[in-house]
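Quick note —
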Amino acid sequence: MKEFSEPMSLISDKKFTAGDARKPKFFDFPLKDLNIIELQNLFMTPKTHYLKSKDIVTGRNLIYTVLKSLNHYHHVGCVTATKSECLDQNILNLSQIRVTKKSFIETVEIFLVENPNIDFAWVEITAELYIKFPEHHLVKLLEVLSANQQTPVIVMQYV
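Predicted structure written out below.
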């Protein structure tokens, strides 16, 4: 099971971490060109990656900056507990999918089969998301999103 709630005391207002769960890398703002290239590499690698940021604004700014600099992804999905209006208008809020009589995961699986064009996704791990979806649903969601190993999935945790 993935661990979402580990504390990260090294993050300050001007730092964030990126990488996988075992090898975090620290970046400072403002980002240098080499940092942006490293992050672009991360965003282009089709597997699950983990980012940590101090707050949702900083985290989204980072994601938007890297996605815009890549100019590659056209069907971006986000799982978040915040209001849809807070996301860029071109980003699909996967948490707004209407859950039918089937389970949440089955509903997401059906949605992804019907909309196979999602080419990048990120999940915002917040206290509100934990209230909306139990942790085992989030772990299963990550498995579903990255099942074909062709979609980069970013797990963004705010600390």
